[in-house]
Design brief:
InterPro entries: Acyl_CoA_acyltransferase, Bact_Acetyltransf, GNAT_dom. This protein is an alpha+beta fold. Helix content is 34%, strand content 33%.
Length: 158
């Protein structure tokens, strides 16, 4: 059986063209499929975060994730030293079920480690809790609404 991820690369976003691909994936998944208003999907953290991008052999954007680190992460995680925030994980429909989402999560974790992180926090859609649990994340706290979608905070020690 052929590897569905053969030829797929994951890299840090570098420049406007990469960012346009990442934003295109997010638009398709969050704005079009999940009806998240664009004004909620794109925020000031986009300018200060590290973004990862999965690209197919044809150059098409297949997935993306965002890593909030530094002072922004400290503020968003309640002052937890050594914690970064994984967010905006999105994989286009055609690439779901291939393991790409898990590869993106691991790439964000590695990028966090390189920045000195000891823990990762994320805000998971409730329907994705099982996915993150299989990757070692633990849910904490109550379910809450974010952009009209039920979410729950999860963390993982690196």
């Amino acid at each position: 059986m052929a590897d569905p991820l053969n030829g797929v690369t994951i890299r840090l976003v570098d420049g406007d063209a990469d960012m346009a691909l990442a934003r295109g994936v997010r638009h398709e998944v969050f704005v079009v499929e999940q009806h998240v208003p664009p004004e909620l999907e794109y925020d000031a953290y986009d300018d200060t975060s590290a973004h990862l991008l999965a690209v197919g052999p044809d150059g098409a954007g297949l997935g993306t994730a965002r890593l909030i680190h530094g002072a922004e992460a400290l503020a968003m995680t309640g002052g937890t030293e050594g914690r970064v925030l994984l967010g905006r994980l999105a994989v286009v429909a055609a690439a779901r079920g291939t393991g790409l989402g898990a590869r993106l999560v691991r790439a964000v974790e590695e990028s966090g480690r390189q920045r000195g992180a000891r823990e990762v926090e994320l805000h998971a859609q409730v329907q994705a809790l099982g996915f993150y649990e299989r990757l070692g994340y633990v849910a904490e706290g109550p379910v809450y609404d974010d952009a009209g979608i039920p979410h729950r905070t999860m963390t993982r020690v690196l």
